[in-house]
Amino acid sequence: MRKLILALALASLPAAAVAADKPDWAFPVTEKVQPPSWDDGKPKTAPDSPLSLTRAQIDDMFNPPDWRPDLHPPMPDVVAHGRQPNVRACGACHLPTGNGHDESAYVAGLPAAYFTRQMLDFRTGARKGSGSMTAIGKDITDEEIKSAADYFASVKPRAWVRVVETDAVPKTYVGPGNKRLVHPDGGTEPLGQRIIVIPEDEDIVLNRDPKKGFVAYVPKGAVARGEALARTGGDGKTVPCGICHGPTLHGIADIPPLAGRTPNHMVRQMFMIQNGDRAGPQSALMAQVVAKLTVEDMLNLAAYAASLEP
Ligand code: HEC
Ligand code: HEC
Fold it and tell me: Which of 62, 71, 171, 271 could be cross-linked to 187 through a Cys-Cys bond (beta carbons 3.0 to 4.6 Å apart)?
């Protein structure tokens, strides 16, 4: 029924608009049935860090771990601790280094003006897609936004996602916190037209340790197809990305960089802009870019952008 209503609603749009099916792989949600817990209950440690922390300490949303203070400047309070009860510490999900996980966002090196605008869009509801960010947006003060924006803009981007083209991927499931993990039963499955992002090292990622990031499996040929579309615009299908995001996709002024950032985050954003779930004032510039894209186009573009040095 919802499909039918959607079809009727879309029938009134210009013929060029594409009704793309939601790419569930880019919107991971914790699965109801979970494999037996991976956690042995023992405190976690990491080589070359003095910390030893329990799972509860690691997942404390108001005092997340800082395994590697050498990898980032001193954090302002909102990033390190947030503020009870709604402004959870940015460093918990985005990590103190801003590299983030696949289900959140890579925010290191984002222009402060862009970052601030996103927080205001979460606050007004113009940007949807994350309950956590909406709740934070409604409660965070302008001063807190400024200190978080200035902080993450000052953190040096680093290589975080390794893009690998393949036909088959390890079997995965979506664990607690919307996090995709390799299934403990093992085995592989066809990748198909998806991007599957898993930790390079599961313990490191579950510890919220920014030492190592992710591997993103993409379909064979996706990077080259994405590069061609990004450079040429595909004969009027879209607009060459470099015009606004810079020739190397490292951003221009308050337009965000795309190079080396998490591919599924980028697919989510393109899909949400196409479907009106991300409709802040500046996203109008992107609306024309995504109007005619299929999910496969978004996948290819994201695979290409993610494969670049951040
Ligand atoms: C509980 C986890 C969580 C916490 C804590 C959190 N975030 Fe987020 N954040 C997310 C998720 C998830 C997204 C991605 C939403 C999406 O895909 O549209 C996000 C996206 C963002 C973005 C948008 C990035 C972009 O380029 O699109 C900004 C900016 C941001 N967060 C800032 C913050 C700030 C500031 C704080 C601390 C006050 C914070 N976040 C705390 C989960 C979190
Ligand atoms: C006409 C200018 C323009 C062009 C061309 C353009 N973009 Fe954008 N893009 C923007 C702006 C502006 C934003 C930030 C919107 C906002 O502030 O909400 C953005 C945001 C994005 C985001 C979200 C980033 C994030 O951190 O959440 C993605 C992904 C993206 N663009 C991909 C692309 C791709 C891929 C192309 C080429 C096919 C492209 N853009 C071409 C202007 C453009």
Answer: 171
List, chain by chain if needed, residues with CB within 6 Å of any ligand 1 atom: 61, 78, 82, 87-90, 92-94, 103-105, 107, 110, 115, 118-119, 129-130, 132-133, 136, 140, 148, 256, 265, 268
Nearest to 174 by CA among 196, 191, 192: 196
Least Cα distance to 190 among 3, 52, 17, 25 occurs for 25
Which residues are within 8 A (CB) of 83 and not within 5 positions of it... i.e. 6 or more apart? 77, 139, 140, 144
Q: What is the Å distance from ligand 2's center to 245 Cα?
A: 7
Chain position carrying tokens 């690691």 = 58
The CA distance from 72 to 304, in Å, is 27
User: With contact defined as beta carbons under 8 Å apart, do 125 and 131 qualify?
Assistant: no
Report the alpha-carbon distance of residue 138 to residue 257 in Å, rounded: 26
Ligand 2 close to Cβ of residue 230 (< 6 A): yes
